[in-house]
Specification:
It is a single chain. The protein is mainly β. 12% of the residues lie in helices and 61% in strands. The chain has 2 helices and 10 strands; from the N terminus they run αβββββαβββββ. A two-stranded parallel sheet has the order 1-6. A two-stranded parallel ribbon has the order 2-7. A two-stranded parallel sheet has the order 3-8. The relative contact order is 0.31.
Length: 194
């Protein structure tokens, strides 16, 4: 009967050590000593590290430019001495410059392995004893990057210079129609780094 009481006491001691090591990160130690013959002594150390990084980047650009420029008509007619007829210049100019930079490097790094320094000792446990010291370290990292980039640029331009006309004059001047010009410049620079 005395022997059975010793085995039961050893089991309780071992269970309390298991509970003390659960989820410990750092340095820990456990000792079973003087538990007597035919005892089972276990020191368990378990460390779990789990990290999850989720990056959801949505970049959208929508640029619409509609322009119209028209100069009027210039006309000289039915004069004895007609002057010059000049229609002005019609011009459109559009410029768009977009720069977007997204960097998720720091949040996307996987977790570093846990730094665990654990030790266990079973000493003076008596003959025919079963002694175990185990240490388990688990590191799990999950990284999910979702990058959605949408760029839409629409540019519609129309320019027309008017008519310049000199007609039905005894002495007519010159007729000059202005320039019609369209200019569009679009620069888009996107840099996404995960």
């Amino acid at each position: 009967m005395k022997r059975l009481l010793r085995v039961a006491a050893t089991a309780v001691t071992s269970l309390s050590l298991v509970g003390g090591f659960a989820g410990v990160v750092g340095a820990s130690s456990g000792t079973n000593t003087g538990t007597g013959p035919d005892s089972t002594n276990t020191v368990n150390s378990t460390s779990h590290t789990t990290t999850t990084a989720t990056n959801n980047n949505d970049v959208g650009l929508l640029n619409g430019n509609l322009q119209g420029a028209f100069s009027g008509n210039a006309r000289t007619r039915h004069n004895t001495t007609g002057g010059s007829a000049t229609s002005g210049r019609a011009a459109n100019t559009n410029a768009l410059s977009v720069a977007a930079t997204i960097n998720n490097t720091s949040s996307s790094k996987p977790a570093a392995p846990s730094t665990v320094s654990n030790s266990g000792t079973n000493s003076n446990t008596g003959p025919d004893s079963t002694n175990r010291v185990t240490s388990t370290t688990t590191t799990t990292s999950t990284v999910h990057n979702d990058n959605d980039v949408h760029v839409m640029n629409f540019n519609g331009q129309m320019s027309a210079s008017g008519n310049a006309r000199v007609s039905n004059n005894t002495t007519g001047g010159s007729a000059t129609s202005g320039d019609a010009t369209n200019t569009n410049t679009t620069t888009v620079s996107l840099n996404i780094s995960n």
